[in-house]
Amino acid sequence: MKHFEDGKLHDELQWVDVAVHACKLLNAAEDVIFLTPAELIAAKDMVERAENDGLEIITIPESVKAKIVGLKDFEGNPIRDLGEYKFEWNNSFKFKFISEKI
Question: How far apart are CA 60 and CA 34, in angstroms?
Fold first, then answer.
């Protein structure tokens, strides 16, 4: 899947079900985020945050994106797409409220 963008995919990875399986394996094995080419352009700030968090960007076609939304990898972790990453990022903040009376 890492060679989607440069056109060096093996023929079998052009099959959506095989690509979904590969995403599940890769998500379980490495710190990655799966993004479509359109997401790379539209969500530049989140892409930059993901890179700063040490995630490797894996570009996938829309057809694969549609199939991986909400899926879990083979270790039971959610597959990290843009929506999942935003959820993780938003939940990473811990707020400590202090009393107004100091």
Answer: 6
In this structure, is the dihedral angle defined by the CA atoms of residues 43, 67, 61 and 25, taken in order, positive or negative? Answer: positive
pLDDT along the chain (102 residues), means of 10: 56 75 95 96 95 95 92 95 94 87 75
Q: Running DSSP on this structure, what letter comes out for residue 51?
A: H
Q: Are 47 and 35 in contact (CB under 8 A)?
A: yes
**CB proximity list for 86: less than 8 A, separation 6 or greater:** 46
Question: Within a domain: residue 74?
Answer: yes
81 falls within a domain: yes
Cβ 62 vs Cβ 19: under 8 Å: no
* 16 inside domain: yes
* Domain count within the chain: 1
> Would 78 be classed as within a structural domain?
yes
Which helix (H) or strand (E) segment holds residue 35: the answer is strand 32-35
What pTM did the predictor assign? 0.77
